[in-house]
């Protein structure tokens, strides 16, 4: 029996990695693909009602950090997962402590986001969960067969997502045609109010209106005078922040708005 002990120990499955996420979009994925005990820390943004992409009650069960080197290292993770932007001091500290750092770019399409979900789940040791979540995302994002309706997503200050963004992909899949290119806007650009008035979309998705009641620009008298030429639909801020499981909620909202216009 003593001779068999080393063999039995070596055959034991590896311990799932202890993970710290310093990105709220990564947090949202981890909540669905990792065991809670694996998640040593999440981004402080996930505990902010204005920025979170997960329920606050769920987020508050976890330790949150602002992403500084001291906070992250103190949690002794096996791996830190984040987005494309990380403070150089944090990167240097993680290297010194031999803590793995994995960064993911901002997804620009449903397919890219689903691939990230699978990768994060595999890193957490639960590839099967990643496959299931990616499948739910793909099902929610099935392209609509409705005639594309001219639409625009309008954020505070007139910021508009254009071609090459996840929002653009979601609009198309929900049965809309993003009018960003019509105005000659770049991937992310600001649309002057005058341009909107001169050539309005059929649907204006007002980001933040769901939280504050109305946006300052969409409540402008000139916009109001457009009357039946334009429909202003509230679009929650949290649906703009991330891909991953947020895509499911975003597609639900977009398809709800599109159904009001028939086929």
From TrEMBL:
It comes from the Bacteria. Signal peptide: none annotated. InterPro entries: ABC_Transporter_SBP, ABC_transptr_periplasmic_BD. Pfam families: Peripla_BP_2. It comes from Sphingomonas hylomeconis. Residues 19-225 form the Fe/B12 periplasmic-binding domain. This is ABC transporter substrate-binding protein.
């Amino acid at each position: 029996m003593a001779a068999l002990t080393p063999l039995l120990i070596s055959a034991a499955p590896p311990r799932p990695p202890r993970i710290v996420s310093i990105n709220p979009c990564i947090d949202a994925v981890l909540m669905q693909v990792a065991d809670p005990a694996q998640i040593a820390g999440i981004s402080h943004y996930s505990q902010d009602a204005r920025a979170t992409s997960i329920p606050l009650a769920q987020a508050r069960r976890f330790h949150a950090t602002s992403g500084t080197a001291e906070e992250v290292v103190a949690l002794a993770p096996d791996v830190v997962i984040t987005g494309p932007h990380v403070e150089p001091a944090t990167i240097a500290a993680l290297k010194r402590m031999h803590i793995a750092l994995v960064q993911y770019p901002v997804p620009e399409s449903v397919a890219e986001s689903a691939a990230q979900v699978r990768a994060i789940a595999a890193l957490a040791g639960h590839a099967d969960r990643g496959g299931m979540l990616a499948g739910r995302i793909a099902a929610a994002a099935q392209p609509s067969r409705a005639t594309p309706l001219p639409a625009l997503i309008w954020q505070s200050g007139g910021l508009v997502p254009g071609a090459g963004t996840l929002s653009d992909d979601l609009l198309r899949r929900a049965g809309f045609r993003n009018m960003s290119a019509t105005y000659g806007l770049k991937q992310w650009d600001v649309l002057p109010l005058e341009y909107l008035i001169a050539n309005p979309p059929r649907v204006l998705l007002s980001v933040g209106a769901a939280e504050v009641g109305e946006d300052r620009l969409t409540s402008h008298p000139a916009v109001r005078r457009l009357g039946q030429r334009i429909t202003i639909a509230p679009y929650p801020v949290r649906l703009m922040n991330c891909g991953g499981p947020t895509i499911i909620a975003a597609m639900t909202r977009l398809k709800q708005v599109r159904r009001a216009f028939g086929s």
